[in-house]
Amino acid sequence: xxxxxxxxxxxxxxxxxxxxxxxxxxxxxLLIARREDRLRSxxxxxxxxxxxxxEWMIADLADERDLxxxxxxxxxxxxxxxxxxxxxxxxxxxxxxxxxxxxxxxxRLHVMATMRLTHAALKNMAARGSGGLINVASVAGxxxxxxSVSYNATKAWMINFTEGIAMELAARGSGVHVEALCxxxxxxxxxxxxxxxxxxxxxxxxxxxxxxVEEALKGLDRNDVVVIPGWRYKLIVAGIKLLPRGLARRLxxxxxxxxxxRKSQ
Length: 265
Fold this sequence. Notes:
The protein is α/β, with parallel strands linked by helices. It has helices at about 15-25, 35-50, 65-75, 100-130, 150-170, 190-195, 210-220, 230-240, 245-265; strands spanning about 5-10, 30-35, 55-60, 80-85, 130-135, 175-180, 225. The chain has nine helices and seven strands. Helix 1 (about 15-25) packs across helix 7 (about 210-220).
């Protein structure tokens, strides 16, 4: 029986690219997202192109009932080989001026859903001593930024959480590998939904979903716990870690103000 890859947020962008890459490797798929038409189309395409079994589950993982339904499916999957927690969204704006429900939904999706599905996947895979799990975080998780407070904070939690899980698995001598994938700006619908003007970001900083996913899978094969695709972003993160935290905050705030001024012109 082929390994099963379960992917959340699979209807577009990085999630859909994971589905394409893993189907090409011969993995069966369970695609989880809110948009049934896209999931059905992708599952049908992957089944026909690669002769694998692909199914989908319609779920809003920020909703507790849908999350528990998805977790039960993850925990009971007999052939689970890879779990990818990719579902997420961003909100651009001052935290206390934003709708609080949107902020709460982001925390439920990035933190609570990631925690719950990671727990379900590891209960499944750790008992067999094999498998992999990728939590899709972001380079944003390495530094707070005004206008993106909850997004950066939840992605920082995902990185820290994944590193802690990796330590626990290593202490048990487990064959299960976990990874925090930390891409930078990636060409997808994500920034359109947020309402971000792509012209404010230099072209060399934009990554393709194909490149990001390929780097993620290579990193998992190497058992890398934190994967940062692209040499430019590796340098940026290294620089952030070397700077005194107070100075890094001031530089980030200054860059954010400059970006806002460009948008208002």
